[in-house]
Design a protein that fits this description.
About 60% of the residues lie in helices and about 20% in strands. It contains 8 helices and 7 strands, in the order ααββββααββαααβα. It is globular, with a radius of gyration of 22 Å.
Length: about 220
C-alpha cells in the first residue's frame, strides 16, 4: 500500500475505533448495541442542529446626534439580533437520555448530590468567550461526574453498579446547568449573533461524560 494512502487511512481508522468504543460505552448505560450506535450517531449529527429558543435585539454601537452649523442630525443606534439556541446533540438528546436514566435506573438523592457537585465545578470552570459562547476544559465534567458517582457508592448512598448512570446524569445535567444556564446573563452579554446551549466546548464535555461514565459500570 502506498505510504500516502496509509497516511490518509490512519485518521479514518482512529475515528472508527473511537466511534466503536463510544458506542460500546453507551451500550453499558443500558442501551442495546444498535440503540447505542443510533444514539451516538444522533448526537454527532444533532450537534449540527440548533433549535432557536429566543431572539432579542441588542445595540452594537450607540450613535449620538451631531451638530452641523445650526442643525442637528440624528443617527439611530446600530442594532443586531441575537439568537439563543438549543443544540440537539449537545443538550437535547443527552438531557432526554438523562431523564430516562433518572426515572428508570438511578436513585434520586445520590444523583442530585453528584449533579450539584458537577454544577458547582462547571460554573467555576466555564468561561464566556466572545464569538464562541461558553467554553470549558472538556475533560473536567466527566472526571468530576465519575468521582462524584464513585463517592456515592463508597458512602453507601448508591448501590454497586449504579455509578455509571449516576455519573452520566450528573455530568450531563450538571454541565448544562453550571456551564450554560447559570451563565445565562453572561451569554446574553457576549455580543455574538448566535449562542448555542450545549454547543461549543460544552458539547465535548457532555460527549465524554457518556464514554467515561460507562466504564464505571
Amino acid at each position: 500500500m502506498p505510504f500516502f494512502l496509509l497516511v490518509l487511512l490512519i485518521p479514518l481508522l482512529l475515528m472508527l475505533l473511537f466511534y466503536n468504543v463510544a458506542a460500546f460505552s453507551f451500550a453499558r448505560l443500558g442501551l442495546s448495541p444498535d440503540g447505542a450506535f443510533l444514539f451516538l450517531t444522533a448526537c454527532v449529527l444533532g450537534s449540527l442542529i440548533n433549535i432557536p429558543l429566543s431572539r432579542r435585539r441588542m445595540v452594537t454601537r450607540e450613535r449620538k446626534a451631531k451638530p452641523f452649523f445650526f442643525l442637528f442630525f440624528y443617527y439611530p443606534p446600530a442594532v443586531q439580533e441575537q439568537m439563543i439556541c438549543l443544540n440537539v446533540g449537545g443538550a437535547g438528546l443527552p438531557a432526554l437520555f438523562s431523564l430516562y436514566l433518572l426515572i428508570a435506573r438511578v436513585p434520586l438523592k445520590p444523583t442530585l448530590i453528584a449533579m450539584l457537585l458537577v454544577t458547582i465545578v462547571a460554573k467555576l470552570m466555564a468561561r464566556p468567550q466572545p464569538g464562541v459562547g461558553i467554553v470549558m476544559p472538556a475533560f473536567i465534567p466527566p472526571l468530576v461526574a465519575a468521582a462524584a458517582a464513585l463517592l456515592m457508592e463508597i458512602t453507601g448512598l448508591a448501590l454497586p453498579g449504579q455509578a455509571a448512570p449516576i455519573a452520566y446524569v450528573a455530568g450531563t445535567i450538571g454541565t448544562l446547568v453550571g456551564a450554560d444556564l447559570l451563565n445565562w446573563r453572561a451569554i446574553q452579554n457576549l455580543g455574538t449573533q448566535m449562542v448555542s446551549i450545549g454547543g461549543a466546548g460544552v458539547f465535548d464535555g457532555i460527549f465524554l461524560v457518556g464514554i467515561i461514565a460507562a466504564f464505571l459500570g
